[in-house]
Specification:
- The complex is a heterodimer.
- Chain A is mostly helical.
- Chain A has 5 helices and no strands.
- In chain A, helix 3 packs across helix 4.
- Chain A starts with 6 loop residues before the first helix and ends with a helix.
- Chain B is mostly helical.
- Helix content of chain B is 63%, strand content 2%.
- Chain B is built from 9 helices and 2 strands, in the order αααααββαααα.
- Chain B has a two-stranded antiparallel sheet.
- In chain B, a hairpin with a 2-residue loop joins strand 1 and strand 2.
- In chain B, helix 2 packs parallel to helix 4, helix 5 packs across helix 9 and helix 7 crosses helix 9.
- Chain B is globular.
- Chain B starts with a helix and ends in a 10-residue tail after the last helix.
- Classes of the chains: A mainly alpha, B mainly alpha.
- At the A-B interface, helix 2, helix 4 and helix 5 of A face helix 2, helix 3, helix 4, strand 2 and helix 6 of B.
């Protein structure tokens, strides 16, 4: 370590070496959506986030992406996205489907 | 006095609940109002997109949409208007695709996973500080993005990025995050272990975040190999 490092820097360095690395924190961040983390894991994450801006961002961004993804779910959304966002069905397919459905409707009626 | 008042209002609430008949049941669309052409026009693209992003095979996606609409036609009486027409149709399609996954069984190729293992290792290679973020690949600040996650550009990037994930991982990710199916159910459907599922989800989230940062947020990619 740089001998000129301030006390604060030394402390952060000391702490960082005693906490799980970012790789582990990233995995736990993901798993926190799948299971309840243990108290120990939560404490380690909290301390790690305290000194690591990158993992702070990662946590926040995972949350935003997760929220955004759930907005693609038609069951929870009044007006799901259309227009440019979805890949369009080819016109030929559309016509074929309509014909097929009309036939089926006639059979039924 | 306020206490009494609160009770009074409670009683009022109760009595009004009893006297007023519950809301009229949602109208059940009668078969005469069936408009399958309208289904194709209104929801065709969405259903097609849904099927395609999960199956990655255009012909198969078309077949699934057709089967879905035919099944919907048959069971139309069961549509009670509780949900929107689109989510009703999507529900049928979703079950058909899940069934397909269930039957296609355990075709998991672990090459996908090992690819993502390499990715993950590359992401956490801080020089001299093992398993911390590689500086060029670390998350950048998205706060300037603000509300733009609602915009079409974001959705385009999202679709592009999920379609770049290996198929199996994308399937699992979309089931979990878009369809919001509980993890246990996904494990049972795909016949994979919980740990396997968690690993796949983690790799998907990691890769997707990075991809979004590059393609939507516009961060310059460091030299790709």
């Amino acid at each position: 370590m740089n001998p000129q490092a301030s006390l604060k820097q030394r402390f952060i360095f000391w702490l960082a070496h005693r906490l799980p690395p970012c790789k582990t924190i990233a995995r736990l961040a993901s798993e926190s959506n799948e299971r309840r983390l243990t108290l120990g894991e939560r404490v380690k994450i909290r301390l790690h986030l305290w000194i690591c801006a990158w993992c702070q961002r990662y946590m926040g961004q995972l949350g935003s992406i997760r929220q955004a993804a759930s907005r693609m779910n038609p069951a929870t959304v009044q007006q799901p996205h259309t227009n440019d966002v979805v890949r369009r069905m080819p016109t030929a397919t559309r016509d074929r489907l309509k014909n097929r459905l009309t036939e089926a409707l006639e059979d039924k009626g | 006095m306020t206490g009494c008042y609160r009770y009074a209002s409670l009683f009022q609430l109760n009595s009004s609940d009893q006297s007023v008949p519950s809301q009229a049941p949602a109208p059940v669309p009668s078969p005469s109002k069936l408009n399958p052409d309208g289904w194709v026009d209104d929801h065709g693209d969405y259903l097609f997109h849904y099927a395609l992003s999960r199956l990655r095979d255009q012909t198969r996606a078309e077949d699934f949409v057709q089967e879905t609409l035919l099944a919907a036609l048959k069971s139309h009486g069961r549509f009670e208007g509780r949900s929107s027409e689109r989510s009703w149709l999507t529900g049928i399609l979703k079950n058909k695709i899940l069934d397909h996954f269930r039957k296609s069984g355990r075709e998991t190729s672990f090459t996908d996973l090992s690819f993502y293992e390499d990715e993950e290792n590359k992401t956490f290679e801080y020089p001299g500080f093992a398993e911390h973020w590689t500086p060029e690949l670390a998350p950048s600040d998205w706060s300037s993005a603000g509300d733009s996650m609602d915009k079409d550009e974001f959705w385009k990037a999202f679709n592009g990025c999920t379609s770049k994930l290996p198929q199996r991982i994308a399937q699992v990710y979309l089931m979990r995050e878009v369809d919001e199916i509980p993890g246990e159910e996904i494990c049972a459907t795909l016949n994979i272990s919980q740990n396997n599922l968690w690993v796949m989800l983690h790799r998907a989230r990691l890769a997707l975040r990075r991809c979004l940062e590059v393609s939507w947020f516009g961060k310059v990619t460091p030299e790709e190999e």
